[in-house]
Amino acid sequence: MAKRQPLPRYTVPSLTPEVGGKVAAILQQRLNAMNDLHLTLKHVHWNVVGPHFISVHEMIDPQVEVIRGYADEIAERIATLGLSPKGTPGAIVEGRTWSDYSIDRADTIAHLGALDVVYQGVIEDHRKAAEDTEESDTVTNDLLVGQLHQIELFHWFIRAHLESASGSLATAGLTTESDAAVAGEEFSDESAGVNGQDSTSASSTS
């Protein structure tokens, strides 16, 4: 639940201070999430290792920049509504409803498995915030829906590394980063084994 904030002394035309304050509180939680996500993505960018290092390392940084920009958009909307956006590290820790990212130096696919869970949570909460502002503030709703388009695209980029040729997802049904990281590693090992077997078979028949 979004933390209760003081009412603004003024807000945008056609909204009451009560509605403006409620929308700003919803947005503050999304600001916490975007700030946390871009820091988490940068952490992953620094800590991936393994055969897919360069492709994943370079895939993550554009996501960092876009999500950081979304934090700025949300913060400016809070200010427009008449309240003060809180972007300090302490505000993120105090206001978030999730635990800190738990994976350090690890195989690229393990990190992507964990990020699948992270993105699921972010998207679900962003969609809920969009629904909660649909009737009260169409401008904020439009902002959140627009951001969801790109966030969900980034999630697809992550999941494409975890999907088999048959369409099954290695992390399907998993809800913790650690479990999803293990599933990602196992998927990577199985894929490497299949590829190795294929190359061995090819060389033996040539």
Automatic annotation (TrEMBL):
Q: What is this protein called?
A: DNA starvation/stationary phase protection protein
The record's region (Disordered) falls at 180-206
Family membership noted in the UniProt record: Belongs to the Dps family.
Q: Start and end of every Ferritin/DPS domain?
A: 25-164
Pfam families per record: Ferritin (PF00210)
Instruction: Cite the InterPro entries for this sequence.
Output: DPS_DNA-bd (IPR002177), DPS_DNA-bd_CS (IPR023188), Ferritin-like (IPR012347), Ferritin-like_SF (IPR009078), Ferritin_DPS_dom (IPR008331)
Composition bias, kind Polar residues: at what positions? 194-206
Q: Which organism is it from?
A: Nakamurella leprariae
- What GO molecular functions are on record for this protein? ferric iron binding; oxidoreductase activity, acting on metal ions
Q: Which domain of life is it from?
A: Bacteria
